TrEMBL record:
<dbReference type="InterPro" id="IPR050143">
    <property type="entry name" value="TRIM/RBCC"/>
</dbReference>
<dbReference type="InterPro" id="IPR013083">
    <property type="entry name" value="Znf_RING/FYVE/PHD"/>
</dbReference>
<dbReference type="InterPro" id="IPR017907">
    <property type="entry name" value="Znf_RING_CS"/>
</dbReference>
<keyword id="KW-0863">Zinc-finger</keyword>
<feature type="coiled-coil region">
    <location>
        <begin position="189"/>
        <end position="238"/>
    </location>
</feature>
<dbReference type="GO" id="GO:0008270">
    <property type="term" value="F:zinc ion binding"/>
</dbReference>
<dbReference type="Pfam" id="PF00643">
    <property type="entry name" value="zf-B_box"/>
</dbReference>
<keyword id="KW-0175">Coiled coil</keyword>
<dbReference type="InterPro" id="IPR001841">
    <property type="entry name" value="Znf_RING"/>
</dbReference>
<feature type="domain" description="B box-type">
    <location>
        <begin position="90"/>
        <end position="131"/>
    </location>
</feature>
<keyword id="KW-0862">Zinc</keyword>
<keyword id="KW-0479">Metal-binding</keyword>
<dbReference type="InterPro" id="IPR000315">
    <property type="entry name" value="Znf_B-box"/>
</dbReference>
<dbReference type="Pfam" id="PF15227">
    <property type="entry name" value="zf-C3HC4_4"/>
</dbReference>
<feature type="domain" description="RING-type">
    <location>
        <begin position="16"/>
        <end position="61"/>
    </location>
</feature>
<protein>
    <recommendedName>
        <fullName>Tripartite motif containing 10</fullName>
    </recommendedName>
</protein>
Length: 367
């Protein structure tokens, strides 16, 4: 007697792998799998926002080609008819060999059987229990696994959120470092252009590494979360089924539970933080070095001639043709090309000092 196909298998084949519900407006992709149009569209949009490439099928990981969504009208009609069919268990609880009710469960072979099977030599020495009696301990184990898997999923969601926060924090830090670098190099552009390009290139590579690792981490975490969600949904649905259906393939189900718990979560590489901090220390050291070339010299006002202006906080001098109405003092120069320093990093400068100004504006930038 040929084995009958369980009704639940027919139902499962008519469900979307993403939402686990009956297919709605089903579409096929190039690998042959079918999804709800809304589910696969949202999946593709989320994938592109994460910057992942290439776009892969949620079921088989095959690459999805552009414009691969094709409406499957025939499948849509089949699904609608399946919804109207009475797929409640009928003769599925009968033994395929003897036609008797599957009221017993063999603990040795992990399978349901009828009274005739129990009396046969194959199961005579095995531990045999009533279905309900055998199902209860396994159901309790399964419920424990469900609780553990939910905790693990929550942990993975937390790791995903932490990964996103760290990525934003690192990118914010690298952005701040970029501003520091640009600000410092503007003062000595002629001498440090090559060094600036080198550091910005290193920073760009670090940005790309952060984004790449973040994308990889989020993708792997999303895959693990998706697999756990599918497994949890399957297990919760299995726990609601009659004992005869529940105990079908229970050993494999429990094995999958243990495999789901054994998977290690993906975290962003911890060495990234050290690399970001190391880069920050490099830019701090650079700032200290550049200050050696950016010392402020303040110009004294009294020694300047009547045709010399001192704008910008006494840090530059401008020669001007019109004479200024200034009092005649002993320390004032008669020549327009002479001026004096009031203060410098080397301490007070006393006496009479001369520097040729030339024409135009001369000075030092603020440090």
């Amino acid at each position: 007697m040929a084995a009958m196909i369980p009704a639940w298998e027919i139902q499962e084949e008519s469900k979307c792998p993403i939402c686990q519900d009956y297919l709605t407006d089903p579409v096929s992709i190039n690998c042959g799998h079918n999804f709800c149009r809304g589910c696969i569209t949202q999946y593709c949009e989320t994938w592109r926002k994460l910057g992942s490439d290439p776009l892969c099928c949620p079921s088989c990981r095959a690459r999805i080609q552009k414009g691969a969504l094709r409406s499957n009208y025939q499948l849509a009609n089949i699904v609608e008819k399946l919804k109207k069919l009475d797929l409640s268990p009928g003769n599925e609880n009968l033994c395929g060999r003897h036609g008797k009710g599957l009221d017993l469960f063999c603990e040795e072979d992990w399978e349901a059987m009828c009274v005739v099977c129990w009396r046969s030599s194959e199961h005579r020495s095995h531990k045999v229990l009533l279905l309900d009696e055998a199902a209860q301990p396994h159901k309790e184990k399964l419920q424990t696994h469900v609780a553990t898997l939910k905790e693990r999923r929550a942990k993975l969601l937390g790791l995903k959120e932490t990964s996103e926060q760290r990525s934003q924090q690192y990118l914010k830090q690298t952005g701040a470092e970029r501003e520091k670098i640009v600000a410092e190099f503007q003062q000595l552009r002629q001498f440090l252009e090559e060094q600036e390009r080198l550091l910005l290139a290193q920073l760009q590579r670090l940005d790309e590494e952060i984004r790449r690792l973040h994308t990889d981490t989020v993708t792997k975490l999303s895959e693990q979360i998706s697999r756990l969600s599918e497994l949890i949904g399957e297990l919760e649905g299995k726990c609601q089924k009659p004992a005869s259906e529940f105990l079908q393939d229970i050993r494999n189900t429990l094995s999958r539970c243990e495999e789901g718990q054994a998977q290690q979560p993906e975290e962003m590489a911890p060495e990234l933080e050290a690399r970001v901090q190391d880069f920050s220390q490099q830019t701090t050291a650079l700032s200290e070095s550049l200050r050696m070339f950016g010392d402020v010299v303040l110009l004294g006002g009294n020694p300047f001639s009547e045709r010399t202006l001192l704008p910008q906080k006494m840090r530059c001098a401008v020669w001007d043709k019109p004479r200024q109405p200034l009092p005649d003092t002993p320390e004032r120069f008669d020549s327009v090309s002479c001026w004096a320093v009031r203060a410098s990093p080397w301490g007070d400068i006393t006496g009479r000092w001369r520097w040729g100004m030339g024409d135009g504006l001369w000075g030092w930038p603020d440090s």
